[in-house]
Amino acid sequence: MEGAAVVAYATVLFNEHTAVGRFYSMAVAPTSRGTGLARRLMDAVEDAARKEGCVSLRLEVSRSNSRARALYEKSGYRLFRELDDYYEDHSDALRLEKQLARHGPRMGITVPYYRQSLDFTCGPAALMMAMRALSDDVRLDRTTEVSIWREATTVFMTSGHGGCSPYGLALAAHRRGFAVDLHVASGGETLFVNSVRSEEKREVIRLVDRQFKAELKESDVRVHRGALNLAGLDAALARAAVPVVLISNYRIYGERAPHWVTVVGADDALLYVHDPWVEEEQGPSMTESMELPIHRREFLGMARYGRAGQRATLLIARRT
Length: 320
Hints:
Layout: E1 8-13, E2 20-28, H1 37-51, E3 56-62, H2 66-74, E4 78-83, E5 93-99, H3 122-134, H4 142-152, H5 166-175, E6 178-185, H6 199-217, E7 222-225, H7 230-238, E8 242-248, H8 250-253, E9 258-266, E10 270-274, E11 292-295, H9 296-302, E12 311-318
């Protein structure tokens, strides 16, 4: 500051349950440019991110802003994603990332990202990403998204449209020609049945659940009773199977609702996740959704839903 005037600022955003920080914004007054202030601000942002346990920082910059791009690239930021039609004026952006800590090699195969287009279709979106990683025949569009939701929904949830059952998602993948291993730990309860108060709605969920299970018995889907542990996830990724995992929204978004994500890689410290939900109310890409790094122990804590600690993981692979 010079007197009472602010000549520069930087903003970085953190989520306590993930290991990535978002370098949200930075500005330097014209009278203070060329003094090294921007570089000092960036160093301070990186120091703050390390203290928060972040292994990487991400930011967005306009494709046409060559001066800012040069500054970030000189500071070690590398291209992470190209974002077409990103800003309000329909101009394009580049998402850049800088690694703050060394980590082991990521395992698995390349999984494309698909953002859910409806509030209630995280399950179909997560499954579509897994299937598209294994087959170019899978279309990433709303028609496929809604079609899978219709096949897999439990009909009722706490409010709004029904969520997707792991049994229904397993059947949807099976019908599309994929090999599926389904791991479920329900605590003896029908999944999601306690999400509604009406006994009539609960009975409908139980009915749908029984139908899904009866259809699975006639398929070659392998259903395993019990949760899949971290070693199982590592083994699945190593053999090019893509895990689709049920988590609770609470740790990331503060809402007690079931949510589906796709695990796209792992190393000794972290799991990398595609989250189909993008939070827009607080700004574009407020929650980093692509290859979101999560500490392994933290992921174990969020990969459960409800008081009974219900867990579900689908492993999607090519059929041999």
